[in-house]
Write a structure and sequence with these properties.
InterPro entries: D12N6_MeTrfase_N, DNA_Adenine_Mtase, DNA_methylase_A-5, DNA_methylase_N6_adenine_CS, SAM-dependent_MTases_sf, T1MK-like_N_sf. Its EC number is 2.1.1.72. Residues 21-151 form the N6 adenine-specific DNA methyltransferase N-terminal domain. Keywords: Methyltransferase, Restriction system, S-adenosyl-L-methionine, Transferase. By secondary structure, the chain is an alpha/beta fold. Helices cover 44% and strands 13% of the residues. The strands form 4 sheets. It has a 9-stranded mixed β-sheet, sandwiched between helices. Strands 12, 15, 16 and 17 form a 4-stranded antiparallel β-sheet that branches. It is elongated. The termini are far apart.
């Protein structure tokens, strides 16, 4: 039986932390005037972090100071001080927030000393917030001591506020910060209910994580933002199994978001060194690490031109040993690069395997024909049986875009019943309208909606909104259909003018050009069309001699080609070996499903219409696409003409009555 926190308890706990967050945020009222509301977060968040860390380190403060005095400038001093603190961080300053209250006049210097006393991994958080500059400004506004005093009075000791409760409180503060910021909420958050859905889909198969005592799982987000996905995953697991532990990892490119995410993990009691600052695509900060679970909501439709040199280098030099071996998408959208990155980050199958969830727009489903980078990435996923399911979300779900979005579920060790298949779920009808829109977000997933989608996934039964396909159903081969070239040649002034427009004849003297046109006009015998290529070539050489014009071999070839026109009644043009030459203008392609024999398809679909066609097998390519919408399209009969006529007649009568009233 799965152990989980009662929903009422979880709700009460969250409500308490909202109240605590509101109390801390109320301290920001002191900032009114010198600061604008959207600037409050840059002060409230780091001060909250400072107070929590101050409380966490309180019991080991003296032990760290003793160790610092003992080790001095020893290279290994940091290791011993972290050990003394019992955390992955420490502080060597003699001050605490409470002791700072004893010297109001020296608050700026003493607080600065206290901040500098933190280990590098914590000081990095305050540096990313630009907290030193805020200390300067607060002191100049005579607010520094008052604000420090207020925060020092807030009891955030672990004995009073657990890591889980502190995490909930900090998330509430982050939400308030986002609401007051000038930036859109979408730049900070993936909607919590979307994350909840993704996490539910990921964990549904992990009975051990949801039930066994002391189980440990790792989770990673390469586009961590402020840590929302990691936090919701942690909440979900603890709600279902309070004795489980989720070890969180992430990387984030934006400095301030990174600082918030890192601080959130510190507050939750996670290892502070698991969050990396930097560009995931160009510099994997956790190279070689793999995880039980991965989550990501990469930017939609953002080009990766800036990252192209590094990505291309890894693709060419490391191939499949690196992250981008399967292929590279077009530069205009790098979201599939993040998907490939996640695949590489999954725990190997031999060690238990891993699962990933990623939010993508519609483009990765079908963009790019056979042989393109996008198609090759889809091919890699499907031929290696990595793609388990795709869920279409309702539109208008995200803060900064209303476009259609999809959750892809990746698994490198599928359960036996799912192997070789992909489940598509149409979740577009599962949502409820919000009372108030937030940016582009007008809809949300209710708990019933999430449960319904998760149940569809778990049951994997065929219905109007859930369909399962074999991997090869998404594959096809693009064949090139050629038709023979049929031409006639003749020497007329008009065709000579066309021939002279060739690039290789551009520098021909004007006198030679005029001679050729005039000679064509004089010699009516030469104007009779012929399909004899060899005979016409001899004819053309005599024509040039009569006109007194000498051409090089490339020029002669271009000149004769320009004198031709396509002629369906003409003989087939052949090469020196007698093989028919293809007509490039008549060339076509056909997509043949992988499940079907190419020759059978060709005989049935092509030859009845063009009996002289053939397949150029050297150009055949294998491709993959996932036409999601097509599989769920339902034809709606148009309204009967009688109904439409009746409505029109009714409108005409109403308009006539209105006109009569006006005239009267």
């Amino acid at each position: 039986m799965t152990a989980r926190l009662p929903r009422k308890v979880a709700t009460t706990r969250m409500s308490q932390q909202q109240n605590n967050a509101n109390f801390i945020w109320s301290i920001a009222d002191l900032l009114r005037g010198p600061y604008k509301p959207h600037q409050y977060g840059a002060i409230v968040l780091p001060f909250t972090i400072l107070r929590r860390l101050d409380a966490v380190l309180e019991s080991t403060k003296q032990a760290v100071l003793d160790e610092a005095a003992k080790r001095g400038d020893s290279p290994a001093a940091s290791v011993f001080m972290a050990k003394a603190s019992g955390q992955s961080f420490y502080n060597t300053s003699a001050f605490t927030l409470q002791s700072l209250m004893g010297d109001p006049a020296g608050i700026k210097a003493n607080l600065t000393d206290y901040l500098l006393g933190f280990s590098d991994n914590v000081r990095d958080i305050f540096d990313r917030f630009g907290f030193a500059d805020q200390v300067e400004k607060l002191d100049a506004e005579d607010l520094l001591f008052l604000l420090t005093q207020k925060f020092s009075a807030v009891d955030l000791h672990p004995n009073r506020v657990s890591n889980i409760e502190m995490g909930l409180m900090f998330e509430e503060l982050i939400r308030k910060f986002a609401e007051n910021s000038n930036e859109t909420a979408g730049e900070h958050f993936t909607p919590r209910e979307v994350i909840r859905l993704m996490v539910s889909l990921l964990f549904i198969a992990d009975d051990e994580a949801l039930s066994e005592k002391g189980v440990v799982r790792s989770i990673y987000d390469p586009t961590a933002g402020t840590g929302g996905m990691l936090s919701v995953a942690d909440e979900y697991l603890l709600e279902h199994n309070p004795d489980a532990r989720l070890v969180m990892y992430g990387q984030e490119i934006n400095g301030e978001s990174y600082a918030i995410c890192k601080a959130d993990l510190v507050i939750k009691g996670q290892d502070i060194n698991h969050i990396i600052h930097g560009d995931t695509l160009t510099d994997d900060g956790l190279i070689g690490e793999t995880f039980d679970y991965c989550l990501s909501n990469p930017p939609f439709g953002v080009d990766w031109n800036k990252q192209k040199p590094a990505v291309l280098k890894e693709h060419e030099q490391q191939g499949f040993n690196g992250r981008f071996g399967p292929g590279l998408p077009r530069v205009s959208d790098g979201s599939l690069l993040f998907l490939l990155h996640l695949v590489k980050k999954l725990r190997p199958k031999a060690k238990g395997g891993g699962r990933a969830g990623i939010v993508l727009n519609g483009s990765p489903l079908f963009t790019g024909g056979a042989g393109s980078g996008e198609s090759e990435i889809r091919r890699y996923l499907l031929e290696n049986d990595l793609l388990e399911a795709i869920v279409a979300l309702p539109t208008d779900m995200f803060y900064n875009t209303g476009i259609a979005t999809y959750v892809w579920i990746i698994d490198n060790d599928k359960r036996p019943e799912r192997r070789g298949t992909v489940q598509l779920i149409d979740g577009t009808g599962f949502s409820q309208k919000m009372r108030k829109s937030l940016g582009s977000k007008r809809k949300e997933l209710g708990s019933n909606d999430i449960d319904a989608i998760v149940n569809l996934y778990g049951a994997a039964e065929e219905s109007d909104v859930s369909k399962t396909f074999k991997n090869q159903n998404f594959g096809y081969r693009t064949i090139t259909v050629e038709r023979p070239l049929r031409l006639n040649w003749t020497l007329t002034p008009e065709r000579v003018e066309v021939a002279l427009a060739a690039r290789s004849l551009a520098k021909l003297p004007d006198t030679d050009r005029a001679s050729l046109v005039n000679e064509a006009a004089r010699d009516s015998l030469e104007s009779i069309p012929t399909s004899d290529q060899t005979g016409f070539a001899k004819q053309a050489k005599k024509f040039l001699a009569r006109a007194g014009v000498t051409l090089t071999a490339p020029q002669l070839k271009a000149f004769i080609a320009g004198l031709s026109e396509r002629d369906k009644t003409a003989a087939v043009v052949t090469d020196s070996k007698g093989s028919p030459l293809p007509d490039t203008d008549a060339r076509d392609t056909e997509n043949v499903p992988l499940s079907e024999d190419i020759q059978s398809y060709f005989a049935r679909e092509v030859l009845p219409h063009v009996p002289d066609a053939w397949i150029d097998e050297s150009k055949t390519k294998t491709g993959y696409e996932i036409p999601f919408t097509r599989h769920f399209y339902q034809y709606v009969l148009p309204r009967p003409l009688e109904e439409i006529d009746a409505d029109l007649n009714k409108l005409v009568r109403e308009i006539t009555e209105l006109l009569n009233e006006v005239e009267a």
